[in-house]
Amino acid sequence: MFLSVNAWHMKRKLVVRRSPIHGKGVYAATDLPANIDLIQYKGRLITHAQADRVYGDGADTGHTFLFTLNEKYIVDANVGGNAARWINHSCKPNCRAYIEEVDGGRKDRVMIETLRRIKAGEELTYDYGITLDVPHDANMKKIWACRCGAKNCIGTMLKPKRRSG
Quick count: other Cβ atoms within 10 Å of Cβ 45? Predict the structure, then answer.
């Protein structure tokens, strides 16, 4: 069986298994240096309107594989997603997600990079930075509870709404 260089690289560097944070998690299979791109967050590209039709606003589930790519598109890792969809949230992350802008459209991509050196066996995490247009009441905070266990854990994956102005 032939594996592409990228698939071989990922299989050697990352492994998916059960996580104490939530469900599945992604772990370093080997020591990883700081400030390297690890993996692209993949899935089918859909418009915001398509996401709303298929998934609704998703605020009441506390679970999503949708990642906003830009003003036009969302990456839906429910379809065609890869291991990156299993990277859990943390209030003290060792990775970060960023948008690599190519054309402001279909060719933009979400990348996950390391923030610091990560030891083999350590779970990879990033701050999801979830903002919702619904009130962040006690019920929403419970639905979107954070289970990262960090000393500075704020107890929710929700971030304050951005103020318009």
Answer: 19
Q: Report if residue 163 sits inside a domain.
A: no
CA atoms of 144 and 153, how far apart (whole Å): 13
Tens digit of each residue's pLDDT (9 = 90 or more) over 60-109? 666 678 999 999 999 999 999 999 999 999 999 999 999 999 887 788 99
Question: Does residue 147 lie in a domain region?
Answer: no
Residue 109 and residue 102 in contact, taking contact as beta carbons nearer than 8 Å: yes
Nearest to 95 by CA among 145, 149, 35: 35
For residue 56, give Cα distances in angstroms to 24, 43, 48, 66, 86: 24, 18, 10, 12, 22
State the DSSP H helix or E strand holding residue 48, giving kind and residue range, or none if neither. helix 48-55
Q: In this structure, is residue 102 part of a structural domain?
A: yes
Range of the domain at 60: 5-128
Q: Which two tokens stand for residue 136?
A: 């962040």
Whole-model pTM above 0.90? no
Instruction: Tell me the CATH number at 102.
Output: 2.170.270.10
Please give the tally of structural domains in the chain: 1
Task: Establish if 44 belongs to a structural domain.
Answer: yes
